[in-house]
Amino acid sequence: MSDVPWLVVGLGNPGKEYAGHRHNVGFRVVDLLASRVGAKFGRSKRAHAEVAEGRLGYGGPKLILLKPLTYMNLSGSAVASLAQFFKVPLEQVLAVHDELDVPFGQVRAKLGGGEGGHNGLRSMSKSLGSKDYARVRFGIGRPPGRQDPADYVLSDFGSAERKELDFLVDRAADVTEAVVLEGVEWAQNKYHGS
């Protein structure tokens, strides 16, 4: 097993007032991953971010779990500086984020592609100089009626959605682990059909 770590970035906004928002689901997933590997988040000295380090199983790949504390539209600066510090190649950077273009209840793995108006992804792509990093897309669906997508992502999940949320965060963590251990294509084959 290579000792080159994976940088798994949960996208979200810092602060209690944002914690329950759809836009913060990336933070929830990396929090769960940290608890799975027995790691605790602490403030980074190298970037405006919280970082946790651990391994996926005994002798498994090293994970650097990252929660940027810069607000969504500036996430890339923390990602780029920690990728450089830990010598993480682009192919081992993975973003976990909310996705308007995936229905609620679905989690999708993807390699590269556009940002779909997601400011966190846009910032990451700009700072990394490439869009060719892995993503785990947590479906939040489109806003109802004429609601502005910006208002929608910065609102809490509905009561019906909250009943499924823990299960879906768990599934997103499973998909993230599958990408790290087996690759994006394997994760797509395993999880996209269900």
Topology of helices and strands:
Elements: E1 6-10, H1 25-36, E2 42-43, E3 49-55, E4 62-68, H2 75-85, E5 93-99, E6 107-111, H3 119-128, E7 134-139, H4 149-153, H5 159-182, H6 184-191
Parallel strand pairs: 1-4, 1-5, 5-7
Antiparallel strand pairs: 2-3, 3-4, 6-7
Structural commentary:
- The chain is α/β, with parallel strands linked by helices and 194 residues long.
- The chain has a single domain, classed as Rossmann fold (3-Layer(aba) Sandwich).
- Helices cover 36% and strands 20% of the residues.
- It is globular, with a radius of gyration of 15 Å.
Give the averaged pLDDT, no decimals.
95
**CATH level 3 topology:** Rossmann fold
Distance between the ends: 30 Å
Strand order of the biggest β-sheet:
2-3-4-1-5-7-6
Order of helices and strands: EHEEEHEEHEHHH
- Tell me, briefly, the overall form: globular
Task: Tell me roughly what share of residues is in helical segments.
Answer: 25-40%
State the CATH architecture: 3-Layer(aba) Sandwich
The CATH superfamily is: Peptidyl-tRNA hydrolase
Give start-end ranges of low-pLDDT stretches.
none
DSSP strand content: 15-25%
Q: What is the class in the CATH system?
A: Alpha Beta
Q: Tell me the radius of gyration.
A: 15 Å
Number of helices: 6
Structural category: alpha/beta
Number of strands: 7
Number of domains: 1
Largest sheet: 7 strands, mixed
